[in-house]
Design brief:
175 residues; alpha+beta; Chalcone isomerase; 5 strands; 27% helix
Amino acid sequence: MRRIMLAAALVMLALPALAQYKPGPENVALPKDYATNFIRYATVDKADRKIIRYLFVNPEAFGTAKAGTPLPDGTVIVMEDHAARLAPDGIPLLDQQGRFIANPAILAIAIQEKRNGWGVGYPAEVRNGEWEYGRFNADGSRNPGPVAACFDCHIKVRSSQDFAFNFWDYLQTRK
């Protein structure tokens, strides 16, 4: 009985924080220091779009995330898109390792952030656990475009892997 009362009290304490939460991309902020303080753990060539994606994760998540378990509360994954340099025929130029060569200018930035209690308010067919997504322009300003495609892609492909693509994959193989 005491355990039930204690659990109920803890739920009541958490309710005000959840009551303030409203689903939407406004919950996600662009970390101004991600390029210098986050860990770039992957580079992905997207041939279908002729872009290169740099993927970063905050150091706290990088240090505490474990293979096979949900990613920790507070995980922030940043996806920075760059155009590939193209030959005159429109084909991406490749470096010595056969990878695309990126133009230095950023095209777009997308954020995937996980916080305890986030996701409440989304229908089950859309909800990505406790993740929210945000879009940003190259200058760091918020891109007001919809984030529905983020939810659609992540729920269909990776629900069993905490809705995270490359960082989840990276964790399974890191030593």
